[in-house]
From TrEMBL:
The lineage of its organism: Bacteria, Pseudomonadati, Pseudomonadota, Alphaproteobacteria, Hyphomonadales. It holds the Pfam family Glyoxalase. GO terms for molecular function: dioxygenase activity. This is Glyoxalase/bleomycin resistance protein/dioxygenase. The keyword Hydrolase does not apply. It comes from the Bacteria. Keywords: Dioxygenase, Oxidoreductase. The keyword Oxidoreductase applies. Residues 1-122 form the VOC domain.
Length: 123
């Protein structure tokens, strides 16, 4: 079971603005907030997301092939999360829509540091 996922960032304040907006749409908020690390989620709830300045002091980097999927409530929330991401400095990686014929519906985007996410529903 995944407890949370952490993304490195070069600008914690910028990441906070992006993930505060995403978290609000998902019905949660910050659960930890330090000078170099912020985590969003609900204690005892689903997996959370964190943004951190890298502990080793080296530049944050994006994982090639790495992506975090956010489970939305419905198609409308997939669209809202995609719009929120783009409004708060994210970039498009694929607009909302069906993917294949399995009932998978998703939108893909990157956060301001280039980390890839999607918002999705199944069925």
């Amino acid at each position: 079971m995944i407890g949370y996922v952490t993304f490195g960032t070069a600008d914690l304040a910028r990441a906070a603005t992006f993930y505060d907006a995403i978290a609000a749409e998902m019905g949660t908020s910050r659960m930890m907030d330090f000078d170099t690390f912020i985590a969003w989620g609900t204690p005892g709830g689903a997996a959370g997301i964190a943004a951190t300045l890298p502990f080793d002091g080296k530049p944050a980097s994006v994982g090639n092939g790495t992506m975090v999927a956010l489970q939305a409530k419905d198609k409308e929330q997939v669209h809202r999360l995609y719009k929120i991401a783009l409004t708060h400095g994210g970039t498009d990686e694929g607009p909302p829509g069906p993917r294949g014929d399995s009932g998978f519906y998703a939108a893909y985007f990157r956060d301001p540091d280039g980390n890839k996410l999607n918002a999705f529903i199944m069925g």
